[in-house]
Amino acid sequence: MRSLVLTVLILSSIGTLNAAQPRQQPFRFTDPFEDITTPHEASSYTFKWPIHRVAIIGAGAGYTLFGFLLLLLFLKPILFLYSSGLIAYDQFSRLNNFYVRLFERDSMPGGNWHYTANETSPNAPVPNFPTSKADFEPDLPPDGVKLPYEKSFEGVEEQRVLEVKIDQRAPKPIWERLGATGPRSYQEFRALPWPEQTPIDINRTHLQRYVRTFASFLSLNSNDNNLDVSYNTRVERVTKRYNITTSTENGQQTKTEAGWTLLLRQFTQTGNNSYKICWWEEAIASGRFNAPNTPDIPGLSQWANLYPHLISHSRQYRRPEEFANQSVLVIGGSVSGTEIAEELDGVAGKVILSVRDSEDSAHTPPRKMHLSRVPRNVSIVPEIKSFHPFTAPGITSGKVELFNGTILYGFDRIILATGYRYSFPFLPQYINTSLRANETVPIQGTDAKSTQRQQPLITDGTHIRSLHLDIFYIEEPTIGFINMNTGIETFLYSEFTSAALSKVWAGQAKLPSSDFMWARHWERVGKGYGRTFMAYGVEKQAAITKYLVGWLNQDAVKYGGYQAQSHYRYPWEGN
């Protein structure tokens, strides 16, 4: 059986973290969630197994719109979520503490910046699929077969081969003329600066080429024949590994946790009418932008059932010309919604953008910025209350009611730019869909540890739970997350969150005890879970960045390792 024994997964970028920089940063740091000075207690978390081998899932790069990835470590491994896989690989490799493997679902590096003009994802389900399902259902090998297991498919229609390929690689939610939300300096690998002749305002083409260039810089491109990377590979299931020892005295067996096992599925197209699938066990991770979110608006599912080809999610959008001279309703006032509305202006016959009020201050400034770019010809209206039942044939006869009582009708197309959900179908054991947004698993006993095995990571898909600093899963800190927050500069922020994971897993920084992490978590939860639970914004990102730098540098003095430099700048401060 081909398998990979892994102990740690590290995702990080370099640049901001300069190993040759001797100057130490101040060690006083405030808790970014509680606004008080946080001295780490004397006791610290002890990992259940040594961490030496790492699996990184996703050969992409961080970006504000699409940023994160899951990393899982296998057999003495760590489980990690994030989509800046290239940055992570670079950071982990530089520590020389780990054996690193990279897995990518797509056929080449780039993550969400791999644009495909003629391949789009299937229609988003209306209503949403259960949280346990993202954009695919795990495809497991037949019961009882010995891994690795391979199955070939011959004489298949070309359309079916394309469907299997799309299901495997998941076409990314970007469109032809998509631009970056910030200047090139905010979307930069510090180890590989942009060429000076590159425009300040960059677009999808610039970023796609740049990310692939960085992959080549690391010898990780699809044509580099690097045995550390496996393309066309998707994770289907993640389970805990155990070592079983037998006592020589009484023959009693003892089972101890030893890491993670990942069941992988690799797709290979062997011809226009043929392909093969291979399953084996290893470690892997995934990004968040695979599970489209469709709003729970009364009547929408009935409309989608009647006219599925006319109602689509923004992840399927590619070009404005597809909507020429049509009346289009765009639902959602964040990046995708406002930029799509802007592109449709002058091409579509009429564009209406429905926006609901922001629920969190972290979303307010970005929301205002995005809406300020919407052309005057685009009508901005309030949130939709309901889609009325049809009284005549044709989608143009349907009526849409807003919360202010206004009735709209005459739409040819509807685009749901309503974001994405957190969903990891390969981690069903950490999903509890019975809980609503602000509900928690009842705490039993007075010891904080008694809650650990009961608290899920995912419930309704609006947020990730049970995390310390939104990075480490408190129950099992060999599961880590990077760039799962919204409202962040992912290229920059991923350097610090990746550094936290790599340093902790390398023993160069210590987590507080489980009791301490749970206590801080419950204090934060007191403010409520929900859609904005993981929303940061500029000031929150800056506070957490400074916290991470202070903590990591303080521990570097005790346990060794380089000093991290924050170099944090607010967007208005420039370089």
Tell me what the structure shows.
It is a single chain. The protein has 575 residues and is α/β, with parallel strands linked by helices. The chain has two domains: 53-290 and 422-573, FAD/NAD(P)-binding domain (3-Layer(bba) Sandwich), CATH 3.50.50.60; 300-416, 3-Layer(bba) Sandwich (FAD/NAD(P)-binding domain), CATH 3.50.50. It has nine helices and 20 strands. It has helices at 85-95, 158-169, 204-217, 300-306, 335-344, 364-372, 490-505, 514-525, 538-559; strands at residues 53-57, 69-71, 79-81, 99-103, 149-153, 229-230, 233-246, 253-271, 274-282, 311-313, 327-331, 350-354, 379-381, 384-387, 399-402, 407-409, 413-416, 467-468, 472-473, 479-482. The strands form six sheets. It has a five-stranded parallel beta sheet, with helices on one face. A hairpin with a 7-residue loop joins strand 2 (69-71) and strand 3 (79-81). Helix 1 (85-95) runs parallel beside helix 7 (490-505) and helix 7 runs parallel beside helix 9. The longest helix is centred in the last third of the chain and has 22 residues, at 538-559. It is globular, with a radius of gyration of 24 Å. The N and C termini lie far apart (51 Å). The chain crosses the membrane at residues 54-75. Residues 1-19 form the signal peptide. Pfam families: Pyr_redox_3 (PF13738). GO terms for molecular function: oxidoreductase activity. This is FAD/NAD(P)-binding domain-containing protein.
